[in-house]
Amino acid sequence: MTTVSGSAVRDPMALRTAMVAELSEDTIRSEAVAAAFSVVPRHLFAPGESLDVVYDSNTPLVTKTGPDGTALSSVSAAHIQAVMLEQAEIEPGMRVLEIGSGGYNAALIAELVGPQGAVTSVDIDPEIVARARACLQTAGYDRVRVVQADAEYGVPEQAPYDRIIVTVGAWDIPPAWIAQLSEHGRIVVPLRFAGLSRCVAFDLAGGRLVSHSYCLGGFVPMQGAGTYSETLVPVNGEATLRMDGPDPGFDVPALRKAVHAPRIERWSGAAFDMPDELELFVVTSASHVPFLYASQQLVDQGVFSPAVTHGTAAVVEGGSFAYRTKRENEGLGGWESGVYAYGPQAEAVADRYVGLLRRWAADFRRRGAARIEYLPTSAGVPDGWSVPKRHGAVAVSWR
Fold this sequence. Notes:
This protein is α+β, with helices and mostly antiparallel strands. It has helices at residues 12-26, 31-39, 51-54, 78-88, 104-113, 126-139, 175-179, 252-259, 275-283, 296-300, 346-363; strands spanning 3-4, 7-8, 61-65, 71-75, 95-99, 118-123, 145-148, 161-166, 181-193, 196-205, 208-216, 231-234, 239-243, 264-271, 291-294, 312-317, 320-329, 334-342, 370-376, 386-388, 392-398. The longest helix is centred in the C-terminal third of the chain and has 18 residues, at 346-363. Its EC number is 2.1.1.77. Keywords: Cytoplasm, Methyltransferase, S-adenosyl-L-methionine, Transferase.
């Protein structure tokens, strides 16, 4: 909540100004994006929500939940919306397709494209479509087209698009999105692969999509034909391996036994920071790297470190496995990376994981060191590390 001379300020314009000032410190880089956030009244897209919540830059606004309380739709946090709009580099006069309708983001895009541009927003849920239309009209953005359809097939009637911005978690990139992109178009999408999600700005290049930039980001999963489900491999009632692809045949009985056997620890001598970049390197530098999740009870028992409660990349070999940890090391400027390893081959799997930590620290310890590509099936089989999708494959290389 913004304060002036110690008094709470609940004026929407003042709160919006404060939010833009905060975003401009580390997220918003362009005057155009700052101007859009300064103009669009975010609170009109979240009726009934308190103003301090609406204008908190890191808080998503859930607009629909399922019977179990799971979020089915939301207005994304302003922070991630700003990140993706900066990735998109939208210019006046562009034609933009937004996949996933909340209303607010479409209004921001409308400000960026201006009166000569065009914005189409598509959602599969009729309730969300009606809500988005009503909010856009109230806020004065009724020139935005809001379409009810399965976004798997895009909106061909308004194509081609200079930008496609996807505001739902996508497991794949449907052929329709690429077909409806203009010659020099860009897709900004929270793409899920290898058990993690990254917001990737893809440029069209020679029949494939090549990353212009990427960053950490996750969204409510896509519905309709693009729905995906992860593979869960229960090791026991308190620990689970999760991955996007099929179970490669983990030796579950051996892993279950390893969980409660003594563990070993190994330290890399390398600094630990930028965990999202390090994690991306680990999962794309080996095959079949699942994410290990475990209960707080096992953490309290000392079996695992707290990292497993949120999921951590695990290297698995037969009945042995290892996952990343850290410890304080002032000589390295703060933290040192290491691993805990379990099972009869704990030494070997620990050495393998530590080797990855050291290689990343020596060669790729920076933002944007990965090159992420999406190759439609027609583009052939990618070289190096890749993961198959329904309509193509995601390939990642390091430079």
